[in-house]
Amino acid sequence: MALSRTVLAVIVIVILAIAGIGAYTLSVANSTVTVSTTVTQVTTVTQGTGGQTVTVTQSGTGGQTVTQTVTQTASGGGGGINQTLIALSKAEGGQVTCYCVMDTGDWPTFNAILTKAFPWIHVNYVGLSPGDIVTRAKTEYQAGHVQADILVDSQPALMQLIPTGALTPYVSQEEYLNNYSGIDPTGYIHPIFGLPIGLIWNTNLVKDNTTLPTSWYGIADSQWKGKLVFDDPSTLNLAGPLFSSLGVSTTNQSFINWLNQVKANNPIITSSAGDAYTDVSTGQAAIGLGYLNDFVGGQASGAPVGFKSLGNTFYISPVPGALTTNAPHPYTARLLLEWFQSYSGAVAFSLTGRTPVFGLVASHYFPAIPEGTALVAMGANSSPNMYVNGTAWVNLYTSIFGP
Amino acid sequence: MAISVFFILPIAFLVYGSFVPAINSHAFTTSFIVQAFTSPRTWPLLVNTLEYGLVSAAIAVAIAAVYAWLLARTDIPGKSFLKFLPLFPLTLPMVVKAFAWIFLFSPTIGLVNNAIKTVTGIQFPVFNIYSMAGLIFANAAGGIPLAFLMIEASLLSMDSALEDASRTTGGGGIATVSRVTLPLLTPAIVSVFILEALIGVESFDYPFILGRNQIPTLATEVYNLVNVTYNYALASAYGIMFLIMTIVLITLYLWYVRKSFKFVTVTGKASRPTLFRLGQWKWPALLFCAAAMLVAFFLPFATIILVSLVPFYTVAPGYNTFAVLTLNNYVKAIHQPLFLQATINSFELAIGAGVLTTLIAAVMSYLLVKNRSRSKVVFDYLSLLPLSFPGVVYALGLIWTFLVIPGLNGIYGTTWVMLIALIVVWLPYSIRFMTNSLLQVADELEEAASVAGSTWLRRFPRVTLPLLRSGFANSLVYVMADSFRELGAVVLLSNAGSITLTVLILDLFENTASALPTVAALSTLMTIMISFLIVIPRVIFRQRVRV
Q1: What distance in Å separates residue A283's CA from the closest CA in chain B?
Q2: Which ipTM did the prediction report?
Q3: Nearest CA in chain A to B336
């Protein structure tokens, strides 16, 4: 069956036309728009059995700048959520789409607790990897077809979305009830849970705990040559942000010297922190850098792994939430975000093995985190800020740890 | 033709994306292309990529060709069992298989290395999975099923009259194979080699997990650009390299098979394949098949089963890893909250994608092979275009296609999007299955039907398709199995109700490192499920041969 040139030409023209329509649609979907608005919102909430009062004043012009004054007097925990927001969510219908890094299989645990508090809410939960969430959110925004109302992703990933305009700032009331040090003053990133990190070791291979490093700098000790494992620092997952917290600056020469000493220890470098945990638990490495929740999960089945935080600071890898620009269901998204940060949401996270930034709840469910411990976001004080300009840190780590 | 649109558009968006900093930007620049092609990092990446892809493809094709020939052309015993074995590597997700290889061949904890140490006293590790040789071995083992399915389909479609003539005139087994069988099989072998090579150069699971940052490839670089630094433009620019490789390989293939009449053996005359008697070589042949399958499937699968039966997996001097066995991981697996929904979704997507893809591929292959106009060449390239970008980058093109094109964005976020995307992703493979079989079929059978008054719509399903039953069955098996266990580019398009078993496994694997035994249990259950998808079509479409 032969195709004539005419038919072929028609097909090519149709394809080019479709592509042209697509390109045109794309170009107008998100043209540069200058919006001048003045937003002033004053919310005063007095609620909760703890008697806390939270006053939030938000004002800004230009649509992208938020100046906020927060006056908070609070005692005890608990809290409630703004009734106006609840009413707006009900009026919206209660639907909300959430792209989240959490296991899809854990969502039913959340949903059971959420729907007890807010029975009208129906969450379309989509579990994706951190990179996939960024890709979808950015792409949907640029195509003018936003589907997700709220994103929960790693902080480095969400920070990538801010310059694209795909995220919208918001002042969350529940946020200020926590003693978390990593609150974002611009209002885009809202801490929800974190992954505490620490030193992990194989208890079959390291029988004497006193030989373990007592500070992070101790991993450069030559006794760990060939026995140390961590994830690739240039992926800015666990090791990368932790190192940036220690060195603070990419030009700190003593820090760079220390990194070279770590490299000289011939560490096993894996593609993820989970792989690093697997290497320690299976016996491929004696010590490594790992997450508390991996340790807790393994402990339940008797895995021969120990965990401890080193130094005076309990570092966490923050996993925040963020609201999307042009979200189809903005009010229910805000309600869900507030609930994630509330006492009830913190308990839900704890029940799935995740450490909430709500310190009171975290220390109750995770004995490894003593009460009153400040949870510090890794890399928050780095220079350049790792979350804003990760490339400088990626280049540094690549130059040392390769390839 | 409509399907070609789905091939072209994602690629078009990706090519466009390599010239602009953001997809909705009009600031055209060649800086990303220049950076990709001139960066000092690029050459080592290219060398690693080509070495990994080409060598593993050659090994997989060689092993599969011998295995397929033994099954299709000899009286090797146990054929009814042997014909299913090469398909079982399709049942395990690559990520899980990667860990099975680690547990077998890691220099420190590998079961094989430790066994050799115990038996022989050799203290250094004999095998190292964390090396280029280890990567090539793992990828070659994984490539055997596809190569076997394609070559077997061609062999079963091939009339053995020419081989009979060779043996009748005194040509021995080796002479017949080398001078008759191999030349006739060359299009299939070249075709599957190109496909395996493309899959190899684009694959990133093994280089990512087993390469351990020491053996970077273009695919791992692209993955980091998309998922770590979010530099989509540079990722698309690197993707152009894959596009060039694809075009070069396709061109070579098309040049080689340009005289397709040379490979026709299925004619209007009645024929049934005859078998070569192995005689004393029967048992070495059986040993070869058993060894190939032991290494490609049974060893990793047995390891996964063992890991699924322990509360945790660890190796230490004096420690008995398998002292305590338990079925608790299977209980945990089945009690995963979305296990049942994921299983149903997996079957629905796999069967839907398998059937639709194979049917569409049958029609498209027919147009490709039987079309004598110059436009045939264009469609030859089009049919392989989806393979020209790694899955992680191709996903970007797919998502743009579904978001931007009017009409398609209405189904964005639904399961239909995943089904369409699966069809687009697997169609190139399916077309190769059908094309290899079609090359063996002469026109005279259809011409006879046409002369008798049959329209194309009547003769295609009644005359042509039955002649392609092997290719049809194998395509169905391959697409269903791969749609079930690997979602690749398609997972980016998943939505709230579309969770599959693969996503459940990957979620658990990536978020809870200590859940490895439960992941192993889920993988074992998935293997059993996929086995049904493999066995049933091959039983339904089985072809009898004369001994």
Answers
A1: 5
A2: 0.80
A3: A105
Contact B311 A164 (CB under 8 A): no
Which residue out of B514, B516, B519 would a mutagenesis test of the A interface target, given it has the greatest number of A Cβ atoms within 10 Å? B514
Q: What class does CATH assign to A79-194+318-368?
A: alpha beta
For B172, residues 6+ apart whose C-beta sits below 8 A from its C-beta are none
Please tell me the distance in Å from A39's CA to the nearest CA on chain B. Answer: 29
Q: Nearest by CB to A127, which of B228, B400, B507?
A: B507
The packing angle between helices B375-384 and B339-370, to 10°, is 160
- Regarding pTM above 0.90, the answer is no
Per-residue model confidence as pLDDT tens digits over A87-112: 999 999 999 999 999 887 788 888 99
Name the nearest CA neighbour of A26 among B116, B394, B84, B404. Answer: B404
| Residues of chain A contacting residue B106, judged by C-beta atoms under 8 Å apart | 284
pLDDT score for B161: 67
For residues A18 and B9, the answer to whether their CB atoms sit within 8 Å is: yes
Interface contact flag, A105 B399, Cβ < 8 Å:
no
Q: CA A261, CA A210: separation in Å to the nearest integer?
A: 22
CB contact under 8 A, A282 and B313: yes
Domains of chain B, each with CATH number or no CATH: 2-262+281-540 (1.10.3720.10)
Task: Give the model confidence (pLDDT) of B57-100 as tens digits.
Answer: 999 999 999 999 999 888 898 888 888 888 888 888 888 899 89
Could you tell me the strand order of the sheet in which A67-73 lies?
A: A38-47, A52-61, A67-73
Q: Which CATH number fits domain A196-316+384-401: 3.30.300.30, 1.10.3720.10, 2.20.28.160, 3.40.190.10?
A: 3.40.190.10
Asked if the model's pLDDT at residue A35 lies above 70, the reply is: no
User: Could you give the residue range(s) of every CATH 3.40.190.10 domain in chain A?
Assistant: 79-194+318-368, 196-316+384-401
Are A103 and B514 a contacting pair at CB < 8 A?
no
Whole-number mean pLDDT of chain A? 79
Mean pLDDT, range B428-452, rounded to an integer:
74
